[in-house]
Amino acid sequence: MNARRNCTKVPIKVLVVDDSALVRQLMTQLLEEDPGIEVVGAAADPYIAREKIKQLNPDVLTLDVEMPRMDGLTFLRNLMRLRPMPVVMVSTLTERGAQVTLDALSLGAVDFIAKPKLDVARGLTEYAGLLIEKVKQAAKARVVAPAPERNGEVAAHAPAVAYRTTHRLLAIGASTGGTEAIREVLTQMPADAPATVIAQHIPGAFSAPFAERLNRHSRMTVLHVERDQELLPGHAYVAPGGRHLRVFRSGARWHCRLGDDDPVRRHRPSVDALFESVAEHVGGNASAALLTGMGDDGARGLLALRKAGAATLVQDEASSVVWGMPGAAVALGAAQETVPLAHVAQRLLAGTAHD
Prior knowledge:
alpha/beta, Rossmann fold, cytoplasm, CheB-like, EC 3.5.1.44, Sig_transdc_resp-reg_receiver
């Protein structure tokens, strides 16, 4: 585990690893526009990167997904085993790029930024602010070498929490580090858990593969929401990237609805948008958890849920990759409980155990 970076004026040292000379040059220029970042080197492949890590001792690595001589995942796996450090993946907006990036996050990468398949220079320039923000957050992130997955399926070593289906609803929101945090929570959910709605900050090309991955790890049926539909027990519903997910009541039943309205707190899907709809239409019949993530999206929504009588909790700082969103919720007084990630599923279900 790396120590969290102290808040000093010492620049964050970054090593850029990419097989494209153009991308290496462009990312170096973009990152060094911020006085708080120093690109100490660049590498065209993992073998060169390995030597430069030893020589330059960077704080953060940006790593291309598809690399020559050694693929990015193999390099990342070795890196996290031998020298765990914050890594931001640079992936392509393709189905394969999404799958490999999700694999990288499961191996311990902190975050990712997607580069377009065409006109990479223009696309990365448009993402400059986001790239800088993610590198800065990565420098402060908690990095832990992950335990190996077991064939990607629902694992017998992760027992489900006992639960009897009721008319309750669960809501989960996350950002940086959330793809793996949500996976861990759903792995512990029983097949008859209450309907669960999920907002994770993720690009549109990545959200369907993310939902598919969750479905492989969960006893619940996990769906990528593509239309308005009824919410059913035993099912989890993942907001699509680029669209808001909200809950509303229709008669005696709850439904979810997609929205293309403006981003909230700079995000679409927004956790605040989801949580506020749950507060309005579900109220005290809900339990909600705000997990790891940078920024403050979801904090106000969690407060609205608490005021509406819902059970509210946040992931604790020690188990969070970035304690921005949970910390903001704690500062607002929105969370009734602050718990380790390993206990989130149990506490979510406990908050809905009363009738």
